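User: quick one, sequence for these tokens?
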């Protein structure tokens, strides 16, 4: 039997932290699942703010439809005006429902 290659763990989450992440994910999912197809504003832990229509929340991800910016190339298909931006729930600081 051949020897398995040596492995070096770079990071391993603390079990308590893992449980907290699960609870946060479930809490966020529960809070926003009824807001699909509504306009929201999201702020990330990196300070970025996005505003758009909540398309879906699934598997720790939030999918936000945002208007395409001029920097986005329209050469491929000029008929699409929006892009779907996937955001990781753990990286969100604030989610605001806009009326």
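Assistant:
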């Amino acid at each position: 039997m051949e020897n398995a290659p040596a492995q070096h763990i770079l990071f391993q989450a603390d079990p308590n932290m893992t449980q907290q992440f699960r609870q946060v994910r479930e809490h966020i999912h529960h809070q926003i699942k009824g807001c699909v197809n509504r306009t929201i504003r999201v702020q990330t832990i990196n300070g970025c703010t996005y505003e758009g229509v909540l398309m879906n929340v699934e598997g720790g991800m939030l999918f936000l439809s945002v208007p395409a910016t001029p920097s986005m190339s329209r050469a491929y298909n000029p008929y699409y005006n929006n892009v779907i931006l996937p955001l990781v729930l753990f990286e969100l600081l604030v989610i605001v429902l806009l009326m």
